[in-house]
Specification:
By secondary structure, the protein is mainly beta. It is built from 1 helix and 9 strands. The protein has one domain: Beta Barrel (Porin), CATH 2.40.160.20. Strands 1-3-4-5-6-7-8-9 form an 8-stranded antiparallel beta barrel. The radius of gyration is 19 Å and the shape is elongated.
Amino acid sequence: MKKLVKLIGVPLLALSLQAGDWNTQSLVGIEGGVNSFDLSSNAGLSDSQSPASFGLKIGAEGQTYRIFLSGRTYSVSDQFDYANSFGAELQYIFRFTSNFNLFAGVNVGIMNMEFDDAQGQVREISQGYAGGDIGVNFSLNHNFDVELGMRYMNLNAENTRYVDDGTGTKTPYTYDIDNMVNTYVSLIYKFKI
């Protein structure tokens, strides 16, 4: 996955730098979304989750790129004590007009979750992720944009706990979360420093 991020991210950054694009704006955005991921276990559990999310992102935008640092919290089911992510996004902007553009990019970060398993035991997952994002951006005026996007995060997260079955044999119980897909809308404030 790291190779994929480098394969996509480095050329995007190089294209932006090559363009001599140093006329940047600062960005602050709030984001709300709906997410989808599957929680499964080797004990036969398969549970689809569709939590809402709320996030904050800060960054910078040039003519052909955007960079964000972001944090999100997820309102998952009662089974989860918490879920949050912290990361960065690098997006290449395809400008069609001054009021409309498309973007595509890469994202990396860390996902933290805590949940109760079928036996009532607390499980924690703290896992790095990498993925991609794509969307559209509409300029409302000089200072505000509305963004509609989709973000894919490849987690490959697992938590294994060995439980004594009473005979001295330790049986592994593994919980897996492979991927998360996030569909979101953002309101972004743009300003010069």
